[in-house]
């Protein structure tokens, strides 16, 4: 087992913009670390530098306390599981798992023992004589993991291993990977662009954007205390609403209505500002008609015109279109583009209890849990709260 330490790691391809820009990150011994971010943010490049498949332009990479910048991939004793499994179609499951041991000229009795142990752990014992073509997607995935595990490497590295699977299988495999990692307690770095995987799998999550590390923290920290607009918009599904607002004392004038911030710390964060973006997660809205007067008094009630509702059984989403003020719309458009166009909509998404009878058309009363809103600087994206 080994800790992985990155010190100001930079990767430049040619003379271009750095694909990875001064990333410093500590993956503790036995920790499950997720690298997440949108396409092109540099997460695969960073993973490939850990494994040694990519040269490091500057900075230091340490594995188990030793600098490995110049150490060949094979000598790093790491195991990588790729997106496309990379199984050998002509070999049986047994030989696919045994492959790294055969390469290392491991004696046959040890190969037999270790492959059988690994197969048992992954519930593949019955399938050892099959070829990959005769396995389901999930079984193939387990074989690929088996090959990584059998070597008893110091760390596992996963590059989007589940992206080729359908949604149901992805869910199952997520649980399996999580269970297996806990059982083996091996240091793991896992790359994904999927925030659900990021939130459910890891001990900690590192969010990257354009090669720059934005925030590292537990899933809960990222959800509750995002450092900026980007992390706030990336983590959580449906994503956080960002309402442009003009500030008047502790009062916010938003496209959904005007409301006060009762929390002194949040109100203080508004100090001297004219405009902010108010971040409200869909789940921090409620149908005002369903809550007590006492609770109502702790937040803000706004009147909104819902134009579409989606009923999901356990909850429902309501969509509230609005117009952003003209002076903010160019800025919002730029931000929106960067956040994959989904975050800075001109509509708010509201998650309501399944019991809510709010219908499209007409005015509805929505309650906002103002203690949970975030305030962002629209120019820098910094979280002010
Ligand atoms: P994805 O999820 O799409 O794989 P990513 O976050 O893993 O994206 P990387 O593949 O690490 O991103 O790429 C980061 C940046 O480096 C991108 O702008 C990409 O175009 C660039 N890049 C990656 N590999 C090379 C290469 N071999 N030569 C030149 N540029 C590259």
UniProtKB/TrEMBL annotation:
SUPFAM superfamilies: MOP-like, P-loop containing nucleoside triphosphate hydrolases
Superkingdom in the source lineage: Bacteria
InterPro entries for the chain: AAA+_ATPase (IPR003593), ABC_transporter-like_ATP-bd (IPR003439), ABC_transporter-like_CS (IPR017871), ABC_transpr_MalK-like (IPR015855), ABC_transpr_MalK/UgpC-like (IPR047641), Mo/tungstate-bd_C_term_dom (IPR008995), NA-bd_OB-fold (IPR012340), OB_MalK-like (IPR040582)
Domain ABC transporter: 4-235
Molecular function per GO: ABC-type transporter activity; ATP binding; ATP hydrolysis activity
One annotated GO biological process: carbohydrate transport
Gene3D superfamilies in the cross-refs: 2.40.50.100, Nucleic acid-binding proteins, P-loop containing nucleotide triphosphate hydrolases
Protein name: sn-glycerol-3-phosphate ABC transporter ATP-binding protein UgpC
CC terms in the record's Gene Ontology section: ATP-binding cassette (ABC) transporter complex, substrate-binding subunit-containing
Matching NCBIfam families: PRK11650.1
Key words of the record: ATP-binding, Cell membrane, Membrane, Nucleotide-binding, Translocase, Transport
Gene label: ugpC
